[in-house]
Write a structure and sequence with these properties.
mainly alpha, 5 helices, globular
Amino acid sequence: MRPAGAGLAGPLGLTALAVLVVNDHVLKPALGNWWTGKLSDVAALVVAPLAAQAAWELAGAALRRYHRPSAAALRAGALATGSLLIAIKLSRAANEVYEAALGAAQWLPAAAAAVLLGSPTPPLWTVESISDPTDLLALPALALPLLSAAATGWPQRRTWRAMTFSSRPTRPGSGPGT
């Protein structure tokens, strides 16, 4: 059986995560063009549903309730990711909430480190996100984790046992060829 969180730790998840990190920290500062923006969008749309699924599965494993990969968590993660991207790119209010949440998420580790080291806590970070509706062109990338999961054989599809139809009941050893 596949361990909890293995979807994110698999080839697709790790590749998309590496692309996201290299693109955001190397390519964007060096090139900073339309293509690097779309590459980030595609990589993030692959990573986010896998991360949601991994979080769900790892929480289940911590509670000793993990039994198999969660296709529902993957689908819910893809739906939530797509919905959030659409909202952020088409609504200024949603974009402002995203900027504040991302700034706080990036600030939190620095603030925690400052507290642990006895340094002054840095001011809350601000992040600028550009509302670019062309980022929605990356939405088909949400299909990649779903297709990858299907290609690996999970979720396990329910199989039905072959049923024999006859006018009389069958018993072991009473069928044809016995």
